[in-house]
Amino acid sequence: MPQTTINRSQLQDYSLKVSEILLKKFPKDKEYITGEEIKSFCPVKQINFFIFNVIFLDWNEGINTHKSKWFSYEPVEVQTALNNLMNVLSHHIQIKKNDFDVLLKKSVADTLELLFYPIDFLLNFIQKNNFSTQELVHQLRFIHIHKDSINSWIDKIRKNSKNEQQVTRAEAKVFLESVFENNLVAHEELVLKYLEPLSQICPINFISSVKEPEEKILAFQKENNVLDNEGNKTETKVSQSLNEKFRSSTTTLNETLKGINEGSALNDKIRLSKIQDISSAISINQKFIFVKEFFGGKTDIYEELLDKMNNCHDFESAKKLFIETCFTGGDFLEKSEQKNVKEMIELLERRFTSK
Questions:
Q1: In this structure, are residues 306 and 278 in contact, taking their beta carbons and an 8 Å threshold?
Q2: Whole-number Å distance between alpha carbons of 145 and 131
């Protein structure tokens, strides 16, 4: 069984390098990139699919946000009309380079996390605590890496769930871990398969792999009650150590990009330490969220405001600039306890008040 060792810091750097290299493929003579061009943009197709996933999630969120209270959206003909509109719009996708840069970085990071940490990624990808298998299939339609395992997972839920229309996250996690625990070799082989196209984009320096002798695999399986002394598969549940060997760590790539988990003393020290440049302390996923939440998806306005806040004389003037730009409706106090607002204020504090 090929075993892989991943340097997480180098993996983060690699994700950014891949994004930078791919961005150079953006059409130089055009202001926009189209949906047709995104389809074939990257040889690692999952990256392209994740870009489309974000586009369609944004569409659904926009529709839900702007629904008028004067109309019913439940009738079949209304749903059909909305779907038809989406189908028409999907043939007219246009994304500016700055906006595409944000989408690309998130999609590359998500692809690497899905590839190396599929259990963590898939569980985080499901946004509801309770869902039907039909909703799960729809939500995962843009995911192609680990497709066979995902299909097995869904089949397992359908056959074993107490209620296929109301599956809990905890229940889904048990079934998902079971699927991957029984497909360790296939997972490793899939990782190696994707390393080739990734290395063609950018040389890989974050992973090493070795081939373990078959006798070591058998010894490990017997040690963990997967095989009995005669080499037959046992009915004993795969031990926790086997799951830990597969996952090696519950830290996902997104968590790595964001920093170490909140709550530790070391994290508090890093989180409150002074920074010279606000943008340097913002992770890829944070940037994506900030651009979407505070700037209506307009990266150029986001970067312009960050530059202005960076050059303010003190915290209060930077905070005032942030509020005046992003809360024109006067609703800052109402939203001041929201996670994303607090994170931005904390960054401003680190820029101007931390020592």
A1: yes
A2: 22
